[in-house]
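A quick aside before the break. I want you to see a complete sequence-to-structure record at least once, exactly as it would be stored in a machine-readable document. Don't worry about memorizing anything.
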Amino acid sequence: MLKAASGTFAHVLKRSLIPTARVNAVGVVRNSHGGPVESDEEFDSRYEAFFNRKDIDGWEIRKGMNDLCGMDLVPDPRIIKAAMHACRRVNDYALAIRFIEACKDKCGPKVNEIYPYIIQEIKPTLVELGIETPEELGYDKPELALKNVYEM
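That is the input. The structure line, written in tokens, reads:
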């Protein structure tokens, strides 16, 4: 009896320690998106219509802006105008300023080329809505920065 039990134990131990080679016949197939491709004009129109909805609330505005900021693009000025109007409808001045700052940040290393164009295009809307740019508010400079001791 002991010999049979020890033989079974040795067999189980041997099978657990020695890996068995298995051949899987599963090939890796990578499926592409395959969905419809949206043109730039359709993309801009979709987001403009999203921000132009009359029943939009603050959470949806933030969601739309967050989605735009997560993409590898700078929003078109007409999308920014629609977003400014949406911010005014929900009376969220701070959100409008933060979105302009986010658009400036999205310009990346070409901020000196793209951002003045955006401000030029949306300036009439900003004046109409009573929204100032971050530069007019002084947000482009640190408030409590100390002067450089070597420049005093």
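Two observations worth writing down. The chain has seven helices and no strands. The chain has a mean pLDDT of 85. We'll return to this after the break.
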